[in-house]
Specification:
The protein is an alpha/beta fold. The chain has helices at residues 22-33, 63-77, 102-130, 152-172, 190-203, 207-217, 229-239; strands at residues 13-17, 37-42, 53-57, 82-85, 133-138, 177-184, 251-254. It has two domains: 13-187 and 228-254, NAD(P)-binding Rossmann-like Domain (Rossmann fold, 3-Layer(aba) Sandwich); 188-226. Strands 3-2-1-4-5-6-7 form a seven-stranded parallel sheet, with helices on both faces. The chain is globular. Pfam families: adh_short_C2 (PF13561).
Length: 262
Amino acid sequence: MDFNFENELAGKIALVTGGTKGAGKAIADRLLKAGATVIITARNKPEEQTSHLHFIAADLSKPEGTQQVVDQVLHQFGQLDILVNNMGGSETPGGGFAVLSDHDWEATLQTNLLAPVRLDRGFLPGMVERGNGVIIHIASIQATLPLYDATLPYAAAKAGLLNYSKSLSNEVAPKGVRVLTVSPGWIRTENVKFFLERISQSSNVSVEQAQQSVMDALGGIPFGRPAEPEEVAELIGFLVSPRAGYLTGTEYVIDGGTIRTI
């Protein structure tokens, strides 16, 4: 097969949730570069406005937010070919299981598990009808390497997302829709850079030493550094492309070797 890497997604409509910053922004830019029409969602407008990306403001942690996105995308663009469920995160306090309330658990599950489920449910019927489509779930290595002190609900939600993604793939692969999971490790986003600077200042160490302390807390990263957002985006760009046409139902870990077991 011959592929035009620079224009291989021409004619495709793609949605990247949480696409205004970090890995989400890098993914949106990567799909745009490949020729796709790209829609991004987040609660707040991107700091850097671009006419090339279509922005929808929505809170996907709420059912009405996901329905708003589904309705607006289908009304404006008619269909969706690529869905990258990238939005996620944890805002729960540290301190282990005892400090976590029902609200902490419910809010985390809504954002990291139920939002992707609802968006899939909204867009899958059209993909199945056309016999074509790709869904990417962005999970985390915490699904198998949980940090119980601070992100227990997040890790549990991502583990659920892994299981759901595999099950969904088994159901819709015979109907022409590919479903894949990408589990990044630590990514050097702008927020991470600010976080390291705060550690550096409060602990009177260099930024490099601060970064090493975080990597040590993760059990070490054999590659010696966090991933760059563009590296994660490049993997996504491949997985949604025709070059990956036989790949489905699989988890792809991009963590620099953080997880030491098979």
